[in-house]
User: Which sequence fits this backbone?
């Protein structure tokens, strides 16, 4: 999962599976934006958290 | 003193003392908007009749000898995602223009009216608040009053521009990832993003519920405190509001900084901006005698997690419209909303798990310090339409990167005051004064010292 990965297939399959038909004119922009999301997400997806580290059920700062 | 450069406190005092009437003050603000708005495109609607009626009501109350609220007769405006009774809440979009007019005022608007403030209009914003630039395909770019060829920052673009231009003394904005603090920095206003859960968001069109906040922008610290205090108080209409009593800030803002442990945020926050960005932090640290540096652990990952949560929550909110109205979105938000709909659920939950971990780490930092200083934006206002900027010799996208320093803080709901300075290139830039949760008053106190000493400055743009 990096900028070199082609996320076009993911965009096509997931959008079809959730009934979100993407106008062909916008597909390239969506792929670029999804690629950015996937790249940014790597910053925390690899970060080790204990199994007990739950999300805050009601977030309080 | 009730002109373009007058503060809300000065206007309220003049009206209370009978030196000016609310009607003439509000009429003057309407005149300033009519004359000044074409240059900056800050207002998308002006509520002339409502404003003049409300002003006349303030004058009538005074004539009857009744008590006046702390903001009696003070004109102000709101980002156009706040509900205003009888008006359509457009949230910077084309699609929401088809909505029915709001049946009641947003809680913040109702509370400000109860304090005597007079709403005069609604302000331009980035579509559905998914924006850091102030550009908008439907209403046109909002323009920086200090240089109309430059961005205001967003998404509370009109709020920053209207206040910086002296059209109104204060305005309401919202901040999910930096949307109050970024325009405060680029336009040169004070801005307050309170603690997450402090002020009711009811009647403010949502974006990413985990991070949505409301707050004021103003040209003085006292005006931030005045308007913030007027908006405090419990509201069952906002499920995220914390069950806490109002804690008034205004009485505390002149306490000074003696005894406060103030540190500069190092690590992630110490690089990544232009020289103006880091010079502003250095100047504030020097003025406050803050020699200590502390690190917020994993702030870069925090920003990344905020980015993913925002994309998913925003896309979920808009999914039905994305299916049927794609062409009606602003091209600058559409592809990002569409991409957010395709993010795997595990990524979102990991980001939320990380958020709680990070909150606990930062809580440890706030055992050692009371106030953190951090940059607000990586640069001063870029030219309108600029897609790329060079920072430290590296080309980067303007749109996602204007919020690199604000996102890791709103991610865990910390209260922040954006304090504007004048940078060497002549444009404004702000520093974030960050406090522990629920300590807005401390951050305002520090901002007040910087204002009093003249380092923080908010000249009305010519």
Assistant:
């Amino acid at each position: 999962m990096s900028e070199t990965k082609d996320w076009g297939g993911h965009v096509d399959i997931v959008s079809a599976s959730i009934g979100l038909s993407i106008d062909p004119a916008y597909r390239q922009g969506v792929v670029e934006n999804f690629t950015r999301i996937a790249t940014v997400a790597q910053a925390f997806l690899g970060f080790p958290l204990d199994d007990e580290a739950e999300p805050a059920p009601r977030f309080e700062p | 003193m009730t002109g373009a450069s007058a503060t809300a406190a000065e206007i309220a005092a003049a009206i209370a003392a009978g030196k000016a009437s609310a009607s003439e003050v509000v009429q003057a603000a309407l005149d300033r908007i009519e004359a000044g708005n074409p240059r900056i495109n800050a207002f998308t609607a002006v509520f002339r009749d409502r404003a003049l009626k409300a002003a006349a009501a303030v004058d009538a109350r005074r004539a009857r000898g009744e008590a006046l609220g702390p903001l009696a007769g003070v004109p102000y405006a709101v980002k156009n995602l706040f509900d205003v009774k009888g008006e359509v809440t457009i949230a910077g979009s084309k699609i929401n223009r088809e909505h029915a007019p709001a049946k009641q005022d947003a809680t913040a608007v109702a509370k400000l009216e109860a304090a005597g403030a007079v709403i005069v209009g609604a302000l331009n914003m980035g579509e559905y608040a998914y924006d850091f630039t102030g550009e908008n395909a439907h209403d046109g770019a909002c323009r920086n009053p200090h240089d109309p060829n430059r961005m205001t920052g967003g998404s509370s673009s009109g709020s920053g521009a209207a206040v910086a231009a002296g059209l109104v003394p204060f305005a309401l904005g919202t901040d999910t990832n930096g949307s109050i603090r970024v325009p405060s920095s680029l336009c040169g206003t004070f801005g307050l993003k309170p603690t997450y859960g402090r002020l009711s968001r009811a009647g403010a069109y949502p974006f990413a519920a985990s991070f949505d906040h409301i707050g004021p922008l103003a040209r003085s610290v006292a005006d931030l405190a005045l308007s913030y205090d007027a908006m405090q108080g419990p509201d069952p209409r906002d499920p995220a509001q914390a069950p806490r009593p109002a804690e008034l800030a205004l009485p505390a803002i002149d306490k000074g900084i003696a005894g406060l442990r103030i540190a500069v945020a190092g690590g992630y926050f110490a690089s990544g901006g232009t020289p103006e960005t880091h010079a502003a932090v250095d100047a504030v640290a020097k003025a406050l005698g803050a020699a200590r540096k502390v690190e917020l652990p994993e702030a870069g990952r925090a920003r990344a997690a905020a980015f993913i949560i925002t994309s998913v929550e925003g896309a979920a909110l808009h999914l039905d419209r994305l299916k049927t109205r794609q062409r009606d979105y602003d091209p600058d938000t559409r592809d990002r909303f569409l991409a957010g709909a395709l993010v795997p659920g595990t990524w979102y939950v990991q980001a939320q798990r990380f958020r709680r971990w990070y909150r606990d780490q930062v809580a440890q930092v706030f055992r050692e310090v009371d106030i953190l200083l951090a940059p607000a934006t990586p640069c001063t206002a870029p030219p309108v339409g600029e897609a790329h900027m060079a920072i430290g010799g590296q080309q980067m996208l303007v749109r996602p990167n204007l919020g690199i320093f604000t996102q890791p803080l709103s991610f865990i709901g910390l209260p922040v005051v954006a304090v504007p300075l004048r940078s060497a290139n002549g444009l404004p830039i702000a520093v974030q004064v960050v406090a522990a949760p629920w300590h807005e008053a401390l951050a305002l106190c520090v901002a007040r010292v910087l204002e009093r000493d003249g380092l923080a400055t908010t000249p009305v743009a010519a």
In short: The helical segments of chain A are 8-17, 24-45. Chain A has two helices and no strands. The interface with chain B takes residues 10-11, 14-15, 18-23, 26, 29-34, 36-37, 40-45, 47, 49, 53-56, 59-61 of chain A (CB under 8 Å).
